[in-house]
Amino acid sequence: MNTQNITITLSETKKEKPQSDQLEFGQVFTDHMFMMDYTEELGWHDPRIVPYQPITLDPASMIFHYGQSVFEGLKAYLTEDERILLFRPEKNFQRLNKSNDRLCIPEIDEELALTALKQLIETDREWIPTAEGTSLYIRPFVISTEPYLGVAPSGSYKFIMILSPVGSYYKEGIHPVKIAVETQFVRAVNGGTGTAKTGGNYASSLKAQEVSGKMGYSQVLWLDGVEKKYIEEVGSMNVFFKINGEIITPALNGSILQGVTRTSIIELLKYWNIPVTERRISMEEVRQAHKNGTLEEAFGTGTAAVISPIGEFFWQDEKLLINEGKTGELSKKLYDTLTGIQRGKLEDPLDWVVEVTKASSLSTVR
Ligand SMILES: *Cc1c(COP(=O)(O)O)cnc(C)c1O
Hints:
Helix content is 22%, strand content 30%. It is an alpha+beta fold and 366 residues long. The radius of gyration is 21 Å and the shape is globular.
């Protein structure tokens, strides 16, 4: 695919931008969006940046019925010297294609997607918020659009990217959350769609979230779908433990989503020569570690919060308080390092950051 084919139609009006210190998550969107279509005849075609606008779909479009869709989530940051940085964006487009493959959606040219994203961000660069801790959240997604009620992969799709300026995840600094261990519902099973970023996984997670929310917990800890013994993820984040000096994260087992943050933390720990183990870990092992005083830290990892320390687990009528409910040393160090690299404040020793420059993509303005 010739990446120079991306066309731009600029918006005639500009929306009012929100105050950058009053931003929440995912509520306002920028002036433009990227869109590209797929048909069996033409393949992926007509990559274009257009004014942000509603899309019209036939009510029989397959996305409304059988949920054949995938998405991604990443962020762009504005540095103090006004450079725009992305964090390992190629990983997100690789994962998008892994998700596409699982959902029978045709592969997308990853290079084109990244070029288009840079172009879109460049077009809406005034929307990148500047206040401490804020960023521009990027949501690429694919929907199936063929009007057909038969159960089969759709013959047509739209790949869309939208941008949303978002506030600081931690308004009063990084702080631990309380987690209920989910014993009734499961998120994913081996052989299912847990390794793909697809809307259905989120739809099926809402019930557990609602129940635990009513109990005063902010997220659930997901156990494996077969024995409900082994730890998988926390909310929509990957999870890490520090037990007796060992850093442990559940091994990728066919139902865990491979987070870019998870991968980066493993690589960073190895770079620091801190031992990190990917293995099976049961909730019983965590309880035992708590009991004998070796459960030092637990935290979730994901693009939105980066690191989310866990202050308490609730499991089988028992409350396990971790590190007196305070943020652990390692959690804090990982948070400071990752956010420092992402925002261009710290050196980038593993070459993760990608800069968006005017020259990083060529296109024709229509
Ligand atoms: C997106 C996601 C994550 C985190 O992935 P990152 O790439 O680190 O943002 C973890 N678990 C689930 C289920 C997810 O959907």
